[in-house]
Design brief:
59% helix; four-stranded mixed β-sheet; 4% strand; 4 strands; mainly alpha; globular
Amino acid sequence: MPKMAKKIAKSILIIVLLTLCAIFFAKPTDIVNADLGRHIINGQVFFENDWPITTNYYSYTKTNFPVINHHWASGIVFYLIYQAVDFQGLALFYIAIILATLALIIHTSRKQNGLLTTAIVTLLALPLLYYRTDIRPEGLSYLFIAIYLYYLNKLTPENLQRKHIFMFAALQIFWTNLHIFFAFGPLLIILWQLHYIRSWKKTWALIITTCFSCLINPAFIQGALVPLTIFHNYGYMLAENQTIFFMRLRTHNPFYTYTLIYMLFTALSFLPIQRIKKPFWNLSQFLIFGGLALCAVRSIPIFGLISISIVSQNIHKLKTRHLQLILIGLAIITLSIPIPYFCIWKQPRQIGITTPLQEAAQFFKYYDLKGPIFNNYDNGSYLIFHLYGQEKVFVDNRPEAYPTDFFKTYETLQKDEAAWQTALKKHQFNTIFFDRRDMTEWAQPFLIKRLQDPEWAPVYVDTASIILIRRTPQNEAIIKNHELAKSLFMTTKS
């Protein structure tokens, strides 16, 4: 095949591959239980105060509790884009970040392993990358990981120059203020340096400079250490921080079964590792990020990114046509499994946010409902976004922003009626605003009790949210016009 024809064929393959990736990530963000709303308001508050928030700030229960805002700069980015082009533009920006990440990973891999092998492995990795598609600051971390891998795969102690040290220092400063995964920057450089341990005299300046760059953040040393200290005050169990085995048993989601199979597949791909030029560099990445993905499912997309180049390299060493045909067949089968995590034809055809889910907050504002609000953990950021400057929340989805014992109280007042009455007397709740999809063991029984409680009237419900208001003289008119019949709700256990 002529060179020009080969070049065109490769370009078409890359475009098709990135288009498939874009389709996977072109889905709406469920703003009710996502962090996005709070990140946007973080950016707004920064411009109001000329400094990131340093306390809980958004809650009336623990307003002054100190907290390190480890992703404050992401809030600025999201806020400015949202102000300019709304949620749709923000979604397009996020897709562009993901595509830039994948383009760098693919470019890094294809130079060593060929485009066809890299493309096949990327297709296999897509469901792993798709696991967390909501617009989050960690998407920026994916891009920084790709940038670091791109340069570290090219660098050796012999061609390391002062400009590279300054470049990594600048990148690390930005990353440190964008997202807590900034710790992966020094980690990757340490792994790279360990690979070239015999040349440490030529490389020590790189790791020292990169680590010291982490100190350049509003919280200084505390900010640099936050990846190590954040779980010291973490009183709420998040699904994203649980192991694959835990999630597989608790949710019966086939995605986790697939992930375990994929990890086995990637492990088997290390059979020819003795013939690879950088065995320690590859194996250390696989073990660390594969271990993180097993221990905390939020790390699954990072493992997917890391493994593209590593698996491609190992498969490329085998270099058998039969293996490539098997992988192509596996990729086609994987992307055809008829569940949303895999099948490209099952992806939603919308970007931005799910618009109908905005209506609950709009109802609250239109009818000028009042707090204090008792809300659940999941929808705190949603309420912060819509009600900032009007009402504060009881809780939001930042475990580190509340004392550990606060969440014990939060759970107990939903489980125990006496505890609820005590909290009601203390806070004088006027509104209950819940994400009714909350599947914690205490949330549904609590909502059933409140729907059966004559002191509370349901006035709004949709697929995600439910609003109840207290029967008081100030709420009499809204209850008269909007109270929902109890027959709409299942308030007894079947």
